[in-house]
């Protein structure tokens, strides 16, 4: 639906781009003419995905752990040497696990905050300083989650994603002077391999709640990619600092305590 050459000549970095939503985002940018770099921790997966994505255009891959600033610096310097610029950053990498807050360990809490909040800040900070601020142009899209009414059962990711949404507002204001726009997309439940990482009981819970979505379905990586493309393109040139929910209305409807009540029974 977007015009084919929309991102011709542009370089896009998608964290967590080897799987699920990130793969869908990378795929659409490539389809629209962009050169894409995908990154994550698992090199064999990146290699396989990059090979597949390269069938339709230019796709590079590089291992990077967004929690470790030294691997981010390696990635950023590698992009500078190999490609020479970066136009768009999509902060999609992340992960979490279900647990009631009262039994969440300090280690578990910190791991998720470190990944989903600090990792996103690290990527924004390094990309902006190396590329976006000096070139006086840049675009960042963060992938968050449905956290508008809190996230019972996953307090860590709720707090981290709300933090990213607030960071989106702050950086939008601080970096407008450099012609950098930053926005977020908050997915509802999206059918990806990421959902397979949850225990069986949670997976069958997901199956049951799909029917309760007001649009009667889960989202797809393409639903998210379409919103990311809008925010990364000149179509949204007067929009910065916002979060768009892409969730078939889940941010407004549905019982937010359902997941929590289920896992509470299991502990
Ligand atoms: N699917 C949903 O319903 C849903 C809903 C709301 C939000 N989200 C969020 O959307 C994003 C994509 O989710 P998905 O469903 O596509 O799941 P996924 O396939 O598990 O994607 C997560 C990606 O992030 C990468 N990653 C995780 N930690 C990383 C780290 N420290 N450094 C670098 N890469 C890291 C993973 O690769 P490695 O393990 O190889 O590093 C993986 O490629 C995630 O942030 C997820 O939490 C998903």
Spatial strand arrangement across the major sheet? 3-2-1-4-5-6-7
Major sheet: size, sense and barrel closure? Answer: 7 strands, parallel
Q: Compute the number of structural domains.
A: 1
What oligomeric state best describes the polypeptide chains here?
Answer: single chain
**CATH superfamily (homologous) name:** NAD(P)-binding Rossmann-like Domain
Low-confidence stretches: none
> What is the end-to-end distance?
47 Å
Question: What small molecules does this complex bind?
Answer: NADP nicotinamide-adenine-dinucleotide phosphate
Radius of gyration based on Cα positions? 18 Å
> Might you state the CATH topology name?
Rossmann fold
Q: Give the number of helices.
A: 8
Q: Briefly, what CATH class?
A: Alpha Beta
What percentage of the residues does DSSP assign to strands (E)? Answer: 5-15%
CATH architecture: 3-Layer(aba) Sandwich
Helix content: 40-55%
| Overall average pLDDT | 97
Please state the structural category. Answer: alpha/beta
CA-based shape: globular
- Number of strand elements: 7
From N to C, what is the helix and strand string? EHEHEHEHEHEHHEH
